Amino acid sequence: MILESFSNLNDSIILVVFLLQEQFRTANCTLYFFHAVKILKFSGQSQMSLYQSCPSGVFTVFSCASEEILGVLVPRLTDLTKSDCIWQRICWRLVECVPDRWMEAVVLGFVQRAPGADVLSRLLGNLVVKNKKAQFVVTQKMLLLQYGHTTEVLQNLLGYLSLDSLRRTLLLRVLQELLETWSSSSAVKHSPAEQQLYISKAILICLSHLKEPEIETHRQELLTSMMEGVKCRLDSSLLQQRRLGMVVAESISLKINTEGPVLKFEYEEDDETRELKSLLVQTPSFCNVPSLPDDDRNEKAGAALPLVPESNEKSHTAAPVMPNEESDTEFDSDDDLIPYDMSEDKELKIKAPVYIRDCIEVLTGSRTEDVDKWEATVKALESLVRKNPAATREVSVELAKILLHLEEKSSIEGFVELRQRTQVAVLTTDPIPVAKYLTSQFYSLNYSLRQRMDILDVLVLAAQELSCPKFCGKTKHSGAQKPCIQLLQGSDSSKGWRRVVDERIKNKTRRLDKGHCDMELASRPNEFNSVAGYFFFPLIQHFDRPLTTFDLLGEDHLVLGRLAHTLAILMYLAVNTVAVTAMGKALLEFVWALRFHTDSYVRQGLLSCISSLLLSVPTERILADMTEELLETQSWLGDVMEKDPDGDCRRLALQNLLLMENLKKKLEVVPS
Amino acid sequence: MHPWNSTVGSASLKLMLKLLPRLFQRRILIEDSMKSKVASLFTALMALPPPDPQFVLRGTSAAVHTLYFSCGGSEPDIPLLYSGSESGFIHVWNLRTHRVDTALDGHGRKSVYCVETMGGKDRLLSQGRDQRICLWDLAEGRTSVTDSVFTEHVGFCRCSLLKVAQGRWLMAMAARSLEEIQILELPSKTSVCTLKPEVGAKLGMPMCLKLWQLSCGSQPVLLAGYEDGSVVLWNVSMGKALSQLVCHQEPVMSLDFDSEKAKGISGSSEKVLSIWSLNEQQNLQVYKTHELVNAGISDITIRPDKKILATAGWDHRIRIFGWKKLKPLAVLDYHTATVHCVSFSDHSNPRERLLAAGSKDQRISVWSIYAQT
């Protein structure tokens, strides 16, 4: 670099511009650029005039090819401003004089390209305080309106805001606005998951920059908006949303309660939550992370005071004690005592009842103290039911009732799963009366949402078992259990449902192989054929009649989502049954009534319904009986694919449209 | 004369056991007349089946939680067994007739979980779930509560009694605040001291207590098992913890201590019995552990002669061990529900000694086992 030889500031700027020019030769902005340089040469005799006139010229160039220019300019300026405060001021001046219409591009470019927050601070100075447009871009547009920027950009941006006291007020304002968005329930409902993640990240980064006194003054606000946000997020039926709420709330509470209890949720850690949490501790000088290990140490020291560790050490030295005792064993032995036969001393096993009616007695009995027997009964009941179908049929509804209301008395491992398997066994043994009972209970008073969702799960698993010809032994259990475990843990059950649908679509594409597959299977009548209606229609009939305790169309939208997914699966499993066309029609009506539901989980369920329908109902029936409805649905699907905020919904809609496309093709093929 | 022709005494069984394989190895011909003898020898070697109870006491009509023998008197005195039941009655059983002599009702129908005599069978101490410890006067047919202590403790920790001088006892009991133990002098009921664990020790509630002293007149010492599974040795006169040993992962349900051998044993809801010893520096250390077949021990008692010990199991079984090496001796399977308590009698004639066990199945089984040794 020959920059050092230029003592005159003007000259050096001109040189920079020349250097830039060299690099821009290939770019399509050359013409404009010469113009700019001419202006520069012409007016750039004094510093003042340079300040006033040069930037506008330079940024004429930006207007045309800001990408390339910034790519060169930012690293160069970064170098120059590193040690030279005059260059810093020139740089500040440069950006300040950028005309408003180019401001956004310039600021964005700087923020994206600067290697760190301190560099950005050197380059931009207090631009955001002085320039309204820049302020809008930085504090509103990049944070609240856009959400495609990477985490590094966010860190640059917010770090830049935090580095100067003038800008810190902006940081606090930004945080307030972010929290407002985060805690607004309509934003939660209508903005895409990616944007919510982006906002959460921004909040966490802001928090990491906050200092103790600032937190002090804003504690109340933080707390209120945290509560609001958590409330509407925990209300969401999507796992990701709930988890996001939990992580952010935990982080906020960690920040505002430096001492005292900290909010702690139970959720599974994954990469996303770990990344989010790491954002909070990125700047150790600001946050109180180091104090945490300190606390730990104190606790450990406290624990070390009592005699526990001492005695633990002693337990290691227990071996030397033994020989001492050993030495006088000649006198000191129990040899004169002859043991009795102890072969009967085996592990205690409670005898489980052998008859189903005995089980009913145990489970309904008021003798609460006999927990062991109760446990053994719960464990044995499923196999009893499967072994004695005739005996089960006699008491099936009573048994279903007991199981539906059965609550965990003692902590049996996997109780819920056991109960569910037993319920499925009862339902498959005597499908019609039990399905009638369960579906009627789904819409009756005095059940918890959990119980209602249990009913749905049981119906699905039983339908799956009835319809699958190769259901026997182990495969059934592994297959049937997996989704239910997922459901019970409240994890993203829609994935389970969707997987089924996806598999179906895959099956669809491999249609030619299908005949081959069927050859291998032992053929058996589809037991679901005769009972599909009993599973399906009672469920779909009453969804629009709210009860005092249960309002599917109101706040119990989680159950509505599950109901939609359940109906989708039942529809899918009803393939090749007689009732399938009627089911399809009813399902289309159901979907049509709910298509604008605000909860994306419900919408996902509806879209799954459409997929199931398209796959299960025979093509000719679809075309004959529901063409109009289908055309309406198609236009709705198009809308969803384009406009839905939820990515999964868009994807499902696209899949459905593809399925419809396939149908059309078939239609074309058939006549020819 | 052939050595086999001599009668085989049970004492030489062990020797025979060693010899038999060798006999067969060398293919020594056994005469026909000897064959039956060898066969009986084999059955003798294959341990005896466990005995049945000597007798069973029925009629408490509630789960039995505690038992205490009073059989030490000379001939005209009738041997007695006191039992405390869930219905709040204390039954006094006549061990000659196997009938209830008296039923005492002093705990407001709340479960009685500790009964002990205080120097003779006329004075009785009982502890119940009504949070009271009652002192009874039973002399000349009286059945009156002479005094009572309000413990304000809501747990199940049995109190422990120690005679320090003629007519003077020390009693350790769990106190009102959760982690504390209070030592009272009886019959004056004056508080001797309160034993508080260090701040932050997190021992939990005391679960079982054992007050003892090395010899008459020496300082009384308390062993206490806590909810967190540790056993703590307290110096009662200084009110200070001398040693703490974590024996179990679960609450210590019961413990007993042999002051002669300075060795103790504790049981918890786990599958393990823990035996620990106390060294000269007053430190508790683990001696060994013994794995059980089923989890849960509700009571442990060492026989007064320190030869055997009995455990009451949640698995409905009573187990007998040799105390010296903790050799398993017998498993007594009679009860049909959790055994709550085991107690050895204090007969002056060792051959009359009995073992009693009380269970949730409302029965008290009385056994005569290893009375000869």
Automatic annotation (TrEMBL), chain A:
Residues 167-263 form the TELO2 ARM repeat domain. GO terms for biological process: 'de novo' cotranslational protein folding. Keywords: Cytoplasm, Membrane, Nucleus. InterPro entries: TEL2_C_sf, TEL2_Regulation, TELO2_ARM, Telomere_length_regulation_dom. Pfam families: TELO2_ARM, Telomere_reg-2. GO terms for molecular function: Hsp90 protein binding; telomeric DNA binding. Its main location: cytoplasm. It is found in: Cytoplasm; Membrane; Nucleus. Residues 353-463 form the Telomere length regulation protein conserved domain. It comes from the Eukaryota. Residues 325-334 have a biased composition (Acidic residues). One of its GO terms (cellular component) is membrane. Residues 304-334 are annotated as: Disordered. Belongs to the TEL2 family. This is Telomere length regulation protein TEL2 homolog. It comes from Cyanistes caeruleus (Eurasian blue tit). The gene is TELO2.
UniProtKB/TrEMBL annotation, chain B:
InterPro entries: WD40/YVTN_repeat-like_dom_sf, WD40_repeat_dom_sf, WD40_rpt. Keywords: Repeat, WD repeat. The keyword Repeat applies. The keyword Repeat applies. It comes from the Eukaryota. WD repeats lie at residues 245-286, 332-373. SMART domains: WD40. This is G protein subunit beta 1 like. It comes from Cyanistes caeruleus. The gene is GNB1L.
